[in-house]
């Protein structure tokens, strides 16, 4: 098991999200929040206290929520839709496709507590399909930040970008994984550790176990590169191709279905540009059982041990 | 106003029109003049006459467009053209040079399958080059079978899947309210479309937020694609339902231009959005199309176009 390469103080990225949204709202009167009775679950209580008129609660009505956000954008606002990712992306998928992406409305979709954050609540509340669904929609940027700082930077970028953006905002405690002074760039991977034998590409809550796995692989004499890939769409094709060319094997790690999400995106790129062995760490094509988020990550071996094994399989040793 | 062409650049020949359809259009005189928006100073009688003749000319152009494209939704377009003409030829505070003005009025056509009627109306209002109408649904045309705001000036939202327009209109009106603006938002809905639950989510939200500058207009033609609405999933009593949802509900003859004008220019009721049930007839006023479910998206042949145009010869 890992000795740990990351700071172990755990943070809820929703705190960084909420603080950043307040900062943006103070600076720009166009910024509004749109929720489906999800003030508490989005940690927007303080936002509501400060900007009561700019916290629009449509009630438990996700289709209306995204449509209203599109209309607010049409009216010159910059709406941040904040709702549990499972309901936002599934119930309002056609509104995301048509009202946000196809219409090119300037609205931001912030999927709270994605992946298996609501582990015990079961597959209805898991959001492991969201990346596959949303990655299939043209003109939509899809971002999966890994820690509070990257969440804050991604939200600031989304506010400045004139078009539809989806950002996953994790509730599961995560350590700071990016170095001091890290600058998030949409569409760009971040090199967190260099290596020559295999590349681990991860995002979101599972960048930390990827770093731990690289540490463990080094003990086995395998030098792993770790790329953080916060932007699933558009993918940093250059970084993926360079990883394939320079390290010869790739492992993807995500808190999502491996079909269609980060793993799918990386595999599509590798196959077309520089075929090398690729292994996927994530949830296979099943509904996850009930269990805590941490238990589920271990259950699906989205863990340092699982990543080490996947790397060894990719390398054939 | 004469039935013949007044000024119709580009309506007689383009690379994408078929010889047959162009011949039909030419022979029948379906060219569409730019009528423009008539100002309130003209007086009610002149405004109503302007809208009435505009609606007739829009129908003539629309049926030729549908025949030419070999696709379209003539029934639901003819039922809603009087509403669209009333809005674009007078009610809406918009103009070609102000389509990006934050203070413009908005119209969202939620029943996006009536795109042909919308395009012809935008052209009549001077918001879209009439020459573009010849490209309706041709390859790479900006005039898609359902409207695209990125390609067509004056289109506020991309619609087509039903149940999207009313939530968007609620958001647009809410933005206006947050800005303290008096600009108005209109959304035109089909009646069958109200079977989509998202509309009822938005009806609640519109009333909850007291969006008095929001007006929803339902094209109550009582037919949907496959059958009568009442036989499919009945809406009645629609007026009572919408009143119960907190809207100020009005009913109007959706083909009476004077009545539409009066309803759509009324001062809003304080604190309540307005819901207008425009009673219409699908395919109106063409005798063989009227109230006939077969004409939801049937494409008229040349003889049927000629017969329809004959009925649309005079105001």
From TrEMBL, chain A:
Gene3D superfamilies: 3.40.50.920, 3.40.50.970. It comes from the Bacteria. SMART domains: Transket_pyr. Residues 11-176 form the Transketolase-like pyrimidine-binding domain. Transmembrane segments: none annotated. This is Transketolase. It comes from Plantactinospora mayteni.
TrEMBL record, chain B:
SUPFAM superfamilies: Thiamin diphosphate-binding fold (THDP-binding). Residues 57-307 form the Transketolase N-terminal domain. Its cofactor is thiamine diphosphate. InterPro entries: THDP-binding (IPR029061), Transketolase_N (IPR005474). Keywords: Thiamine pyrophosphate. Gene3D superfamilies: 3.40.50.970. Belongs to the transketolase family. PANTHER family: TRANSKETOLASE N-TERMINAL SECTION-RELATED (PTHR47514:SF1). This is Transketolase. It comes from Plantactinospora mayteni.
